[in-house]
Amino acid sequence: MEILLVEDEEAIRDVLKSYFLNEGWNVRETDNGKQALQWIQNFKIDLIVLDLMIGGIQGEDVCRKIRQFSKVPIIMITSKVKEADTINGLNLGADDYIAKPFRTKEVIARIHALKRRMDMLTNDNLHRTAIKRFNRGRLSINHTTNEVFVNGERVELTHTEFKLLAVLTKRPGKIYSRHDLMYEVHGYRNIDVGRTIDMHIRNLRAKIEEDPREPIYIVTKIGSGYKFDFQSEAEIS
């Protein structure tokens, strides 16, 4: 796995790089947001560990720009610990968010969980009907290319958003609690799960629902969780 490590503190960068190399991962490292964007555009990167307080271009802007052309998984690492900062990071398209100070082994565990999730998504798609359509074809999901179309127009989803949609549509009508979705989507359980899943749902609704305030696909079951409210109408293998 090719990891891009974007971190401005040399000591933290050296420790993380050492652990990453010990896991057998290749590492590109920089403390500069502008250089990070150049590398992402010029090299195959499998995962990005991104600090927000970096030189050149701030981490939030780096994340925003990446999401304009790439779905590469992003784990944000930052000293910004307010809930609003976490929500903002997820809104920008981050797949996970870790606050400083952190334990290096936790970062490694989060990366392994994200990698398992990516591998599971790939394996699921190999054994799943390629295209599923819902609501008279207004929503279609291509599990071969990981693409989603709304009214014939392709919408850009992050890895996390696509996995979330894939989980919900795999068993339409099933109610998933937030903790269930955290495990299915992130590969681990977290006691502070509510806002993270809610924000991913909110972002996903904004992309696939005609009116996110009155969703017809991803429905909230108060006190229980979420469910997908349409059965698949057409499947093409």
UniProtKB/TrEMBL annotation:
<keyword id="KW-0902">Two-component regulatory system</keyword>
<dbReference type="InterPro" id="IPR039420">
    <property type="entry name" value="WalR-like"/>
</dbReference>
<feature type="DNA-binding region" description="OmpR/PhoB-type">
    <location>
        <begin position="129"/>
        <end position="230"/>
    </location>
</feature>
<dbReference type="InterPro" id="IPR001867">
    <property type="entry name" value="OmpR/PhoB-type_DNA-bd"/>
</dbReference>
<keyword id="KW-0238">DNA-binding</keyword>
<keyword id="KW-0597">Phosphoprotein</keyword>
<dbReference type="Pfam" id="PF00486">
    <property type="entry name" value="Trans_reg_C"/>
</dbReference>
<protein>
    <submittedName>
        <fullName>Response regulator transcription factor</fullName>
    </submittedName>
</protein>
<dbReference type="Pfam" id="PF00072">
    <property type="entry name" value="Response_reg"/>
</dbReference>
<dbReference type="InterPro" id="IPR001789">
    <property type="entry name" value="Sig_transdc_resp-reg_receiver"/>
</dbReference>
<feature type="domain" description="OmpR/PhoB-type">
    <location>
        <begin position="129"/>
        <end position="230"/>
    </location>
</feature>
<dbReference type="InterPro" id="IPR011006">
    <property type="entry name" value="CheY-like_superfamily"/>
</dbReference>
<keyword id="KW-0805">Transcription regulation</keyword>
<dbReference type="InterPro" id="IPR036388">
    <property type="entry name" value="WH-like_DNA-bd_sf"/>
</dbReference>
<feature type="domain" description="Response regulatory">
    <location>
        <begin position="2"/>
        <end position="115"/>
    </location>
</feature>
<feature type="modified residue" description="4-aspartylphosphate">
    <location>
        <position position="51"/>
    </location>
</feature>
<keyword id="KW-0804">Transcription</keyword>
